[in-house]
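User: I've been trying to design a sequence by hand for this structure and keep getting stuck. Would you show me what you'd pick, starting by listing the structure so we're on the same page?

Assistant: Good idea, let's start from the same input. This is the structure you sent:
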C-alpha cells in the first residue's frame, strides 16, 4: 500500500523505508494520480507503485497531471495520457485508440499525398479533374490543376496549354461540324461575297486618269460619279447582306458550342437561332466597322490595332449579350500577348484569302480586259472567276469563325472555371 497521506494533507510524506527521513521541503500533490493506462510500464515514482529498491534513495512523488493539449482551431483537444516518466518536458504520450475508434487530430500527416486533416470540398464544388491554374494544387492532384476545368474539354483551352491547345480545339471543331458549318458559310458568307464581287465588276470605273500635255493628271469625264456609284453600290450591298452574314456567324457559333457539349445540331435549327441574334449582332458589327474605319483614317496601323482589339466582340455578344465592345477591349489588354497571337493567326487566314482574291482579280483582268462587262462573253467569264474566288475564300470564313470562338473560350477559362456545356447553355 501507499504511505501517502489523504488528499489535501500538508504533512510531509512518510519515508518509503524505515530509517530514511522524508524531504520536508517537498509537498504532496493535491490529488491522487490515476493508475497508468493499460499497456504502459508503471512509473516507479508514481503513488501506489512499489518503492525503489535503493534504501538510500528518498521517495518522490509524481508531477501533477498535464492538462489536455489544445489542437488546431476547430479540432478536438487531445487528452493527456499518463505513462511517461516525470520530468520529460511536461508532455504526455496519448494512448493509441482502439481499432475503429475515433482518431485524434494529428498535426503531422503520415501520407503526404492525401488531403490535409480537416479538409473538405467547398460547398457546391465537385472534385473534377481541372485545368492548369497557377500556384494551386488540390489534394491528390498534380500541382497546377484546378477543379471545374477539364483539360480534355473539346472547346475550352485550359490555361497554360499554349497555342497548341488552341489549334487542337480549332481542328476538333472543324472535324466535328464541317458538315453543318460548310453549308451555313456558303449560304451566309460566300453567296454575299460572290454577289458583291460581281457588282464590283459591273460598277468599277473603267476610265483611268491620264497625263495632260503639261504633265498634270487629267480626270476623264464623269470619273467621280463612277467612283461614288461604285462605292455606293458596294456599301449598299454590304448593308443589305449584313443581317444575313450576322445570321451565319451566330448560327456557326451555335453549332460549334453545342457540338462541343455533345448536343444535337442541325443546319435548320442553327439558322433559326442565327435569325434571332442577327439584328443585334449586325448592329454591333456596324459599330466595329466604324471604329476600324476611323482608325484607318488616321493611319493603317491604328485601324489594324482596332481590328485586333475588338475582334472578340461577336462571341462576347452571343455568349454574354452585354457591352461587347468594351468587354473585348478589356479582354484584349488584360492578356495582350495571348489574344493578339490568336487574332493574328485568324488574320493570317483572312490575308491569305485576300491575296488569293487579288491574284484571281489580276488573272481576270488579263484574261477579259479592263472592262469585262462590255461584252456578254467576257462578262460571263469574269463573273465566273469572281464566283470561284468567293468560293475559295470559304475556308478563311470557317477559320475566322472557329478561331475566334475558341479564342473567346480560352479567355473565359483564364477568368474562371468554364466548360463547353456552360458556354452552350449561355447561348440560349
Amino acid at each position: 500500500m501507499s504511505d501517502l497521506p489523504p488528499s489535501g494533507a500538508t504533512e510531509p510524506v512518510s519515508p518509503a523505508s524505515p530509517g530514511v527521513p522524508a524531504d520536508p521541503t517537498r509537498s504532496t500533490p493535491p490529488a491522487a494520480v490515476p493508475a497508468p493506462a493499460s499497456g504502459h510500464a508503471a512509473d516507479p515514482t508514481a503513488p501506489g507503485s512499489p518503492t525503489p529498491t535503493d534504501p538510500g534513495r528518498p521517495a518522490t512523488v509524481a508531477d501533477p497531471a498535464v492538462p489536455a493539449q489544445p489542437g488546431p482551431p476547430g479540432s478536438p483537444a487531445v487528452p493527456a495520457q499518463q505513462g511517461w516518466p516525470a520530468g520529460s518536458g511536461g508532455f504526455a504520450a496519448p494512448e493509441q485508440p482502439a481499432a475503429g475508434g475515433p482518431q485524434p487530430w494529428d498535426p503531422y500527416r503520415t501520407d503526404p499525398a492525401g488531403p490535409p486533416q480537416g479538409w473538405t470540398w467547398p460547398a457546391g464544388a465537385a472534385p473534377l479533374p481541372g485545368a492548369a491554374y497557377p500556384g494551386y494544387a488540390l489534394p491528390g492532384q498534380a500541382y497546377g490543376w484546378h477543379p471545374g476545368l477539364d483539360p480534355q474539354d473539346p472547346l475550352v483551352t485550359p490555361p497554360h496549354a499554349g497555342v497548341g491547345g488552341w489549334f487542337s480545339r480549332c481542328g476538333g471543331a472543324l472535324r466535328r461540324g464541317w458538315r453543318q458549318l460548310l453549308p451555313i458559310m456558303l449560304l451566309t458568307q460566300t453567296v454575299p461575297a460572290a454577289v458583291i464581287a460581281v457588282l464590283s465588276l459591273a460598277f468599277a470605273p473603267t476610265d483611268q486618269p491620264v497625263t495632260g500635255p503639261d504633265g498634270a493628271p487629267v480626270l476623264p469625264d464623269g470619273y467621280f460619279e463612277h467612283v461614288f456609284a461604285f462605292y455606293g453600290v458596294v456599301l449598299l450591298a454590304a448593308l443589305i447582306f449584313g443581317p444575313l452574314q450576322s445570321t451565319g456567324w451566330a448560327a456557326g457559333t451555335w453549332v460549334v458550342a453545342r457540338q462541343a457539349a455533345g448536343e444535337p445540331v442541325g443546319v435548320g435549327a442553327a439558322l433559326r437561332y442565327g435569325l434571332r441574334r442577327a439584328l443585334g449582332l449586325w448592329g454591333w458589327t456596324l459599330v466595329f466597322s466604324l471604329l476600324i474605319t476611323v482608325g484607318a483614317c488616321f493611319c493603317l496601323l491604328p485601324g489594324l490595332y482596332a481590328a485586333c482589339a475588338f475582334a472578340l466582340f461577336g462571341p462576347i455578344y452571343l455568349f454574354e449579350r452585354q457591352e461587347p465592345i468594351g468587354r473585348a477591349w478589356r479582354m484584349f489588354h488584360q492578356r495582350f500577348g495571348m489574344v493578339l497571337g490568336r487574332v493574328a493567326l485568324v488574320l493570317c487566314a483572312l490575308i491569305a484569302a485576300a491575296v488569293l482574291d487579288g491574284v484571281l482579280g489580276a488573272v481576270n483582268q488579263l484574261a477579259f480586259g479592263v472592262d469585262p462587262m462590255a461584252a456578254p462573253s467576257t462578262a460571263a467569264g469574269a463573273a465566273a472567276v469572281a464566283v470561284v474566288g468567293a468560293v475559295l475564300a470559304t475556308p478563311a470564313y470557317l477559320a475566322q469563325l472557329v478561331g475566334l470562338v475558341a479564342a473567346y473560350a480560352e479567355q473565359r477559362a483564364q477568368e474562371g472555371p468554364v466548360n463547353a456545356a456552360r458556354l452552350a447553355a449561355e447561348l440560349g
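That's my pick for every position. To get oriented when you compare it with your attempt: The beta strands are 131-132, 145-146, 210-211, 217-218. The radius of gyration is 41 Å.
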